[in-house]
Amino acid sequence: MRKMTPLGWLICGFFMLSPILGKAQSTQEYEGKSEILTLERALEIAYENSPTLRQSKISLEQSQNSLISQRASLKSQFSLDLNPFSYSRNSSFQELNSEWNTFRSLSSSGTFTIRQPIKWTDGTISLNENFGWQDEANQTLNRTSTSFFNRLTLSLEQPIFTYNRTKLELRRLELALERSKLNYAMQQLNIEKTVTQAFYQVYQSYKNLLTAREELKNQQQNYEVIKDKVEHNLVAKEELFQAEVNLANSESSLYDQETSYENTKDQFKQTLGLPLDMDISVLPNTEVVPVEVDLNQAVQHALKQRMELRNMEIQIEEGTFSLIEAKATNEFKGSISAQVGLFSTGSNFSGAFRNPDDNQDVGISLTIPIWDWGVRKATIRNAELSNESTEIDFEEEKKTIVIEVRQLCRNLPKLVKQIEINRQKIKNAEMTYEINLENYRNGTITGMDLQQYQTQLSSAKTEYTNSLIQYKIELLNLKIQTLWDYQTNTSYLPVDLLK
Description:
Radius of gyration: 42 Å
Strand content: 15-25%
CATH architecture of the largest domain: Up-down Bundle
Number of domains: 2
CATH superfamily of the largest domain: Outer membrane efflux proteins (OEP)
Structural class: alpha+beta
Helix content: 55-70%
CATH topology of the largest domain: Outer membrane efflux proteins (OEP)
Number of helices: 9
Distance between the termini: 69 Å
């Protein structure tokens, strides 16, 4: 046996440690990772990780499979039932002969069936081919009988004077699939709204942090200026005390904003389903492009495309089905049964196909209710009241949608104007602060006066950020409310509801 070289030991050790290293790498995949997220990327991550959306997708797939199963059940069904071997031996007392007889029976048979449901009439037509062999013996009397038989039948079962249950169930499953698609789409819209709001909350917190850092930097500079002047007896010592208070407040405010920023990021990572130890930052599109929105057209888009309305229309149609079923309670109904066929038998195989006899069976059955103590009437009335309530909800939902869309359309121009005002307020506050900062350094105003101008500047920046975010959120709300993207002037549907 050859001795392994050091290189061989190294290669062997590498392969032994590879699974362990791979597992460690997978667990540390996100540790220390940093990613800059745009809104589009954040939505992609949310769609992939959202448990609610995954559950909606599962429900959608279940509805699709149910409809596929129902449609497949309306096609021709082929089946083969086999009884390859059957044997029995028993004794019975024959009263006519006053003696015990022993019988033996040996048989084998099979039945091939083609069953075709009739969607348009709710009936069923079947073709059956039954072929078999049997050997019977009366062992007491020493008699035997062997025969082959063949039975071919065509049968029809057709309900009459009642509703078509097959078509109703098929339509119900089609509506269930459409509802699943609507729910899946609405979950996407809800996620988009939630993620967008959380995204801009992170951005807002980040801007507040930048404002706090800038304010602390200004306070540090002011503190150094006042400290130098106090040392040269140019200003009263009380100004240094005020500068220290302002500096301490700015440091505390910065700490609060840093904490708020980290907390907001953690909440955003939880919303996206990202690891909490992953560092993220957001990169929003802060460009404001005012869009022209025609109020009447926006209302029409909403009434035509809102999935909540279509969902309620489905509910109304399903209520119609419930009313049909209620009217079938203790109903007058019937059934037609018809069967024609050929039957032949013989002592050998070929004899089972010679000289077949005709077989016909036709029958009509009726169910006639006489008195049900008002069960049917009460059931129908309940279904009618339920449908009436749904229709009232439908009309009220339309009114609510119209009101919401109108409010959004009226609010957007106001927000655009507010953004311009807040942008100008920042410029004015910056100029005012610079002027009074120079006055503060010259000793013409106090530190408390300068703090007011600093607060005014910080508030102006915060208000501008808030108005910018509010406009973005309201524009998204309008898109969700009308299902129309006014930035691209196209219809907005998360999934193709026509498939």
